[in-house]
User: Which sequence fits this backbone?
């Protein structure tokens, strides 16, 4: 992104007492981007966005917007707006009063305020009659939309989301994820979104930043993170994948047979330490006459139905291997039956072991 | 914002802290100062001595201190036993009835304690509400229980009941129903559940309730005066006499100081351990 | 809640009613005594009169007592609500260094025998050269009541989401605007209950007034001096009128709180 970064976070450190929540973070955000920060709870993602909007102060480092430092500007004068996990809608005000609150602070005339509020209600596909409704009369999804309308009202340059969908049920969450992506496209605003669900991040984001223990593990597009995770942490964060230990040419007792192509795919120096990642949907059950670059004998352990897919665990030596295939191609075998597995050389991705924090 | 919060926190604490420094801490320091003054002086500009404490021992004032502490202990114990079932009901069994009890008991708090104790006097005296009606209907009355230490304890139990009841109810409401059900499911009997599940989990409420009632009844004065009819002299009586009729501030101060020290020892340790944020329902 | 046996539930309800009955029994006696015609009270009461209540209502002496009590209670209410509002913010909202210590210090006056506090204040006022009057009684009441209002408002402050204030600030509100537009309206039910408590506790307080109000007698103090010097029908008459006044105010206050809750 170079020097033209819209938002730039440089060397941000945040300590609470002796606890370091963020450790020398660097991040550039482009204008109009939908960036999602993903991490387990306690990884520092909430802290990061609270620093971005100014609710908390940085311990050291700088935040700049269009080349101007904003980390010393108090929250109420930053062109940022946050949508809170709890939404933080004012229970003592109506929907209209909530949306108009930031406009009233900016001394907009009552008529103009009302017009803007109604325009936002339309944008968020809420009926205009909601203008006079109490917050307590709105459903979870409606509140979500009111909070978005309020955040858009004063036209902030960046809107920050602190897991606003986490309290909703699965179906509503799926709908709102799509609406949010759509809203981003229509408004062209910069969205910074945090969540602990990589799945949610993949649906919406232009880029995803994976966070762990106060540092970024990987910042990349959804596709890159999916196919080329940089660490075991990122790989395992995406859900269940096969990670086989590999030290030089030692597979740690995994009874795997390699074709010449496979040998080339995993050719590493003898002192190399790390793992071989194989996605479960790329592992196949082999018919007796079938071949693959990597082949493996094992016994079927269990079968789990996952809706449109079905997952199997196979015990190969001491190592469990996960296999997934479409539900229509369910296996007829039973637990304990011998099976033969295989995958192609193109399916493997090598993850070099790096001591955490020295990257 | 954090820096701002730190400053705002300090600033908003300032008014009430100024009040408490000027009219709580300072008076107690003055009491402590007078406690080590010679007898019957009215200023702190004298060489300190410990004559007040000698008088307390030689003239038997320590007995009223022990008496007050004993009565307070008895009051606290009785209140705990009386209030537990009711607090339990309020926290776990009664629905809207809890609100009724709460309102009714809070309403009583607003009635001057001397009016309520005077009411007991009218209720329990010879020819009072109870004895008078009994004599009229049954022909025989009973000796009035007024003017003795048991009726003082009764009066204190009555006056300080809310201070045990509400903390206990709050404490019991912190006991998750699951814990009790799980214990019962695992085969624990009623008493085992009470002693090993409910009471330990309700401990913060129990502690606050017992401390409040003990401290308040140790320093009580109206019950002894209005129901005890001066037949039993409690500590606060002696303190008041020393300050007023006796015109012996150092003696009064020394007596107060002994009570204050005991109260402080009892209260400070548990209070410093309680996490007020969780007890009062902090969300984050 | 449903695992408690039916017999236990009935016993608990019965016990609750019994406790309430005993708690209110003395007020029943006072009530009857107030309307008994006989100058020397004996139960059962044979002839009733409202003359004592009437006399109490019209007596100029009583008027003075009520005025003094009201002056004290109103001043205490206003001051303790202001102190308690800011105290509660420091207690529950703001994260500042000595918050923990502050929380504990606030509790101490509540955990303190009031008669001893009254006497300690008496010699402190004396050392300062201040003559005790209704104003010193206000100070004494505040020491006990301001921490209580702080706690009541703090409980309310704990129950609302801190993100509300952060959101307001994030949208551009200054510190005072956040206070006026968000914090104050949301704390209002707590402030009303705190004011109600402050007034009623001050109105009925006896141990603190006894030692700190000097020559300005409040109603409870005057009643006490009459009680220890011998029975007159004026005592129950005034006592029960004071109780009725408190109850009426409590009902008005509760109605106000209901209104507030409906608005929110």
Assistant:
């Amino acid at each position: 992104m170079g020097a033209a970064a819209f938002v730039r976070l440089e060397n941000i450190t945040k300590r609470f007492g002796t606890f370091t929540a963020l450790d020398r973070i660097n991040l550039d955000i482009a204008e109009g981007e939908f960036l999602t920060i993903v991490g387990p709870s306690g990884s520092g993602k909430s802290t990061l966005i609270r620093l971005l909007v100014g609710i908390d102060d940085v311990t050291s480092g700088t935040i700049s917007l269009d080349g101007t430092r904003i980390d010393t500007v108090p929250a109420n004068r930053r062109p940022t707006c946050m949508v809170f996990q709890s939404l933080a809608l004012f229970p003592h005000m109506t929907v209209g009063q909530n949306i108009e609150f930031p406009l009233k602070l900016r001394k907009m005339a009552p008529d103009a305020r009302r017009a803007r509020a109604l325009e936002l209600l339309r944008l968020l596909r809420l009926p205009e009659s909601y203008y006079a409704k109490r917050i307590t009369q709105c459903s979870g999804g409606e509140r979500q939309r009111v909070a978005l309308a309020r955040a858009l009202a004063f036209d902030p340059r960046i809107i920050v989301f602190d897991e606003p969908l986490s309290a909703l049920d699965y179906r509503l969450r799926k709908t709102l994820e799509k609406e949010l992506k759509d809203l981003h496209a229509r408004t062209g605003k910069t969205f910074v979104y945090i969540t602990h669900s990589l799945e949610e991040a993949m649906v919406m984001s232009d880029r995803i930043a994976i966070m762990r223990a106060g540092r970024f593990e990987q910042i990349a597009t959804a596709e890159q993170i999916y196919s080329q995770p940089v660490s075991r942490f990122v790989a395992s964060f995406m859900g269940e994948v096969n990670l086989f230990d590999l030290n030089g040419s030692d597979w740690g007792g995994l009874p795997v047979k390699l074709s010449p192509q496979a040998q080339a795919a995993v050719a590493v120096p003898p002192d190399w330490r790390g793992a071989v990642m194989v996605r479960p949907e790329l592992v196949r059950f082999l018919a007796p006459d079938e071949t693959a670059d990597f082949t493996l004998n094992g016994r079927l352990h269990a079968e789990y139905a996952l809706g449109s897919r079905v997952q199997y665990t196979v015990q190969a030596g001491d190592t469990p291997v996960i296999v997934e295939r479409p539900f229509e191609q369910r296996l007829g075998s039973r637990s304990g039956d011998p099976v033969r597995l295989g995958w192609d050389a193109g399916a493997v991705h090598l993850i070099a072991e790096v001591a955490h924090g020295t990257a | 914002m954090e820096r701002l919060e730190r400053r705002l926190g300090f600033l908003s604490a300032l008014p009430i802290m100024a009040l408490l420094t000027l009219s709580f801490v300072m008076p107690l320091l003055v009491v402590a100062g007078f406690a080590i003054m010679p007898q019957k002086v009215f200023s702190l500009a004298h060489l300190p001595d410990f004559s007040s404490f000698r008088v307390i021992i030689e003239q038997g004032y320590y007995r009223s201190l022990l008496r007050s502490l004993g009565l307070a202990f008895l009051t606290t114990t009785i209140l705990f036993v009386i209030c537990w079932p009711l607090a339990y009901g309020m926290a776990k069994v009664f629905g809207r009835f809890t609100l009724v009890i709460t309102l009714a008991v809070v309403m009583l708090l607003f009635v001057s304690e001397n009016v309520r104790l005077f009411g007991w006097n009218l209720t329990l005296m010879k020819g009072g509400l109870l004895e008078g009606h009994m004599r009229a209907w049954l022909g025989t009355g009973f000796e009035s229980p007024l003017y003795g230490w048991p009726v003082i304890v009764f009066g204190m139990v009555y006056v300080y009941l809310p201070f045990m009841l509400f903390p206990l109810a709050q404490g019991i409401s912190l006991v998750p129903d699951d814990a009790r059900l799980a214990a019962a499911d695992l085969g624990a009997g009623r008493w085992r559940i009470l002693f090993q599940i409910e009471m330990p989990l309700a401990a913060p409420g129990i502690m606050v309730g017992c401390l409040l009632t003990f401290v308040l009844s140790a320093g009580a004065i109206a019950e002894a005066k209005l129901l005890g009819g001066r037949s039993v002299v409690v500590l606060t009586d002696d303190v008041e006499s020393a300050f007023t009729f006796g015109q012996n501030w150092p003696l009064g101060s020394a007596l107060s100081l002994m009570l204050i020290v005991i109260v402080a020892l009892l209260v400070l340790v548990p209070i410093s351990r309680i996490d007020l944020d969780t007890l009062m329902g902090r969300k984050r | 809640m449903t695992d408690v046996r039916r017999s236990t539930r009935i016993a608990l309800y019965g016990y609750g009613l019994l406790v309430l009955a005993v708690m209110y029994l003395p007020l029943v006696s006072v009530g009857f005594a107030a309307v008994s015609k006989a100058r020397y009270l004996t139960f059962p009461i044979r002839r009733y009169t409202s003359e004592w209540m009437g006399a109490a209502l019209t007596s100029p002496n009583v008027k003075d007592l009520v005025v003094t009590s009201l002056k004290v209670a109103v001043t205490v209410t206003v001051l303790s609500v202001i102190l308690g509002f800011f105290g509660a913010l420091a207690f529950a909202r703001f994260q500042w260094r000595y918050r923990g210590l502050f929380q504990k210090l606030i509790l101490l006056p509540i955990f303190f025998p009031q008669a001893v506090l009254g006497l300690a204040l008496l010699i402190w006022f004396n050392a300062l050269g201040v003559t005790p009057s209704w104003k010193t009684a206000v100070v004494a009441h505040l020491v006990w009541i301001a921490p209580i209002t702080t706690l009541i408002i703090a409980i309310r402050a704990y129950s609302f989401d801190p993100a509300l204030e952060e959101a307001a600030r994030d949208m551009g509100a200054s510190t005072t605007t956040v206070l006026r537009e968000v914090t104050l309206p949301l704390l209002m039910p707590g402030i009303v209950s705190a004011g109600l408590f402050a007034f009623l506790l001050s109105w009925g307080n006896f141990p603190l007034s006894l030692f700190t109000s000097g020559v300005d007698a409040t109603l409870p103090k005057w009643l006490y001096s009459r009680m220890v010097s011998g029975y007159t029908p004026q005592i129950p008459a005034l006592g029960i009128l004071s109780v009725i006044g408190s109850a009426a105010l409590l009902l008005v206050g509760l109605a106000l709180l209901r209104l507030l809750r409906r608005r929110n």
About this structure: The first strand of chain A starts at residue 7 and ends at 16. The two ends of chain A are 21 Å apart (CA to CA).
